[in-house]
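Write out the 3D structure for:
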Amino acid sequence: MIAVNGVRDENLPPPPSGPAPRAVDGKPDLSGVWLSGNYSFANMGGALPLQPWAQKIMEQRQATQSRDDPEAKCLPAGVPRITPYPFKIVQTPKLLVMLFEGNVHSFRQFFLDRGHDKDLDPSWMGDSIAAWQGDTLVVDTVNFNDKTWLNGRGAPHTEKLHVIERYSRPDLGHLEAEITMEDSGAFTKPHTFKRSHVLSATWEIHEYVCNEFNVDVDRLVGK
């Protein structure tokens, strides 16, 4: 067991030790397969500052035992919600790609060579652009639809959701993320929390097709 954000998580292997690698352009290399553990993927830094209507919707979803959770129906988890399955980062000088093993093999693209695309329709994962601030990769994501839940408790958001993620690799074995969510349609103020991920030196992401064996979805009757 190792400590993640001060909490011991027995689902994570000991991380490899050593200095953080550098890419050919001199930037920190965030590439690798990353594991989140139960604590990190569920952690959102405490209660979300929801407006009354959003709080009521979250309570209604809990009362029905998350019967309508999009993720349970093999729809994308959205941002910043993640699953406990591994994810992989592929890094190039102009583009980073995040590939998720769980759910529906969702992916995210972080573009370092352009601004936000103004012509896109709202989407499950939004439109992400990125820039390096020293050794920290800052990812700015907008243009979400309002179909995802922010967490497993059913916290809603609107199409005004704006997510800023700050990724850093302090050493070989860890990827740190500071995440700030803003949503003037559903939040009373911005909310920031942190996650820590551990590098897997031996694991590769595998094929996992949620739709193929989703036998429990018809049993999600709730209350």
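The first helix runs from residue 37 to 42.
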